[in-house]
Amino acid sequence: MPELPKGWREEPLGEVAAVRVSNVDKKSRPFEIPVRLCNYLDAYREDYLDESHPYMAATATPSELTRFGLRPGDVIVTKDSETPDDIGVAAVIEAAPDNLVCGYHLAIVRPTAQLNPVWLAKQFGTIRVRRYLAARATGSTRYGLSNATLGNVPMFVPLREEQDGIVEVLRTLDVAIRCNEQLTAKLQKLKQGLVHDLLTRGIDENSAVRPISDERPDLYARTTVGLVPKGWDVGLLDSFATRGSGHTPNKNVRSYWDGGIKWVSLADSERLDNVFIQETDKEISELGIANSSAVKHTEGTVILSRDAGVGKSAILASTMAVSQHFMAWSCGPRLNNLYLYYWLQHAKPRFEAIAMGSTIKTIGLPYFRQLEIAVPTRREQDAVAIRMLDVDRLLWKSAADLDKLGLLKAGLVDDLLTGRIRVAKLPAGSAA
């Protein structure tokens, strides 16, 4: 910045906070005090640490406990790491358990009253400070900051009232992001349990999940695929859907490529397992189709990776081709393609377990020719598919909300912490 905002000043860190570098390691030594050691931040990247943080068990001398003990309001900063990007990661100690000690990979920064601890920690995340630290980190296999470098980190210091206002805005965003992350995690667990229940017990005529077999054994029959609800059909997957695969056109012939036909390959692994696949990394042409064993699969076809990323699946959102690394099933009237997708998702651990190979694991075609599936009535399949898709829609919305909050925070943080956007102290109890 060419100049600081009115009322702001720049001070070396050592002028506005006490900087203390720890030498306590995680080794357990007899005749010393048992402590909990806070030694790493790069693995967690949390903004605020409390008693639930996974601290390590260690021991320390009484003098180490006195000198390097942590208390609420302290800021800890990563001072050395194997990668420069993990240096200068900071977090605020919000609630400290008894005998919590700073480890030797971290430095304690204890701010004076003129600095809000969260403001101080957030300053370490600004582009300005990160560039400063990256330029001064030394080492070959492990990078570190000297005590002098830490003490001279340039900190922006507005009035405490303005710091508090900015921190309140950022805290509100952090809380919203954390709540959204927790919601997403709960939805993921709900989905896992629901997939298992719906694909092994189904939905009865009252639209309820059937009781487990231990409670109502009369509702189940033993088949070649295990216990399934009575009335379900069991047979080869090939008897319910038309199986196909794909191919890779000659990569040395340019006219076979970039011709507008979406082509699913191993490069699209990250796009799978999200119900529908919309886009692909590469496209092939009609000439590529004509001069290879690749074929166009219609919208709604269910695909499964049988090589690297074994067991990942998706439903084609439009007409596409696939590489030879994928199986493809076109479902007829007896099988709902969404039901098949969720069934493949449920069977994913089985696919991963049987994949063979040293460098690239794969499942051979004979396995899929013998693959059996238990299929309820089409009405029941449709009901199962709707419930599962509703959960995925909630997950998509949660992920989209989280992305929006992340973008909002990324756009605001540097502007707020450098004074490009000014914030007055918010009234008590107000929402940012």
Give short descriptive properties of this protein:
single chain, 432 residues, alpha+beta, Adenine-n6-DNA-methyltransferase TaqI, Chain A, domain 2, 3 domains, 5-stranded mixed beta sheet, elongated
Topology of helices and strands:
Elements: E1 9-12, H1 13-16, E2 17-21, E3 33-38, E4 48-49, E5 56-60, H2 62-68, E6 75-78, E7 80-81, E8 90-93, E9 100-102, E10 106-111, H3 117-123, H4 127-136, E11 143-144, H5 147-151, E12 154-157, H6 160-200, E13 220-223, E14 226-229, E15 233-236, E16 241-244, E17 257-264, E18 276-277, E19 282-284, H7 286-290, E20 302-305, E21 313-316, E22 321-322, E23 326-331, H8 337-346, H9 348-354, H10 365-369, E24 372-375, H11 378-418
Parallel strand pairs: 3-9, 4-8, 17-22, 18-21
Antiparallel strand pairs: 1-12, 2-10, 3-5, 6-8, 6-10, 7-11, 13-14, 15-24, 16-23, 17-19, 20-21, 20-23
What's the gist of this structure?
By secondary structure, the chain is α+β, with helices and mostly antiparallel strands. It has helices spanning 13-16, 62-68, 117-123, 127-136, 147-151, 160-200, 286-290, 337-346, 348-354, 365-369, 378-418; strands at residues 9-12, 17-21, 33-38, 48-49, 56-60, 75-78, 80-81, 90-93, 100-102, 106-111, 143-144, 154-157, 220-223, 226-229, 233-236, 241-244, 257-264, 276-277, 282-284, 302-305, 313-316, 321-322, 326-331, 372-375. Helix 6 crosses helix 8 (337-346) and helix 6 packs antiparallel against helix 11 (378-418).
